[in-house]
Amino acid sequence: MLILLIISLLFTGFIVLRFGSALGQEGNPMPYLKAIAKYEFSDNGYEEVLEKPTGTRYISAAGQDDRYGVVTDFMAAEGWKFTEQLGSGLIFDKGEDTIIIETRQYSSHYFIWDIPDVVLSKDE
User: Fold this and answer.
1) For 60-86, how does the pLDDT look when each residue is reduced to its tens digit (9 = 90+)?
2) Using alpha carbons only, what angle is made at residue 39 by residues 91 and 46, rounded to the nearest 5 degrees?
3) What is the pTM of this model?
């Protein structure tokens, strides 16, 4: 029993040290921690966190050289062309349509980004 308690405390301490104040910034931290665990054990450059009424939220590593390359690659696969970056917003064009994908720092190791449903809709 004591060994289980010590392991639990060490695991909890690791999570708190790794993510610190980021744990509660987006509400319930469990979907984010699950997505980060999946991300760390996959070869994918991103992982889906949750679906929202307006779109889908993803998480990616923040320490890459081409930090937003994963977002521009994702959007290119959907037919959108990257035009420019304004702060934490990435602007994409597709024909006459323009969309801004906002990114936010989640912790020192990860950032989150939301893809609106209009990007993912297949009926265009």
Assistant:
1) 988 767 788 999 999 999 999 999 999
2) 15
3) 0.76
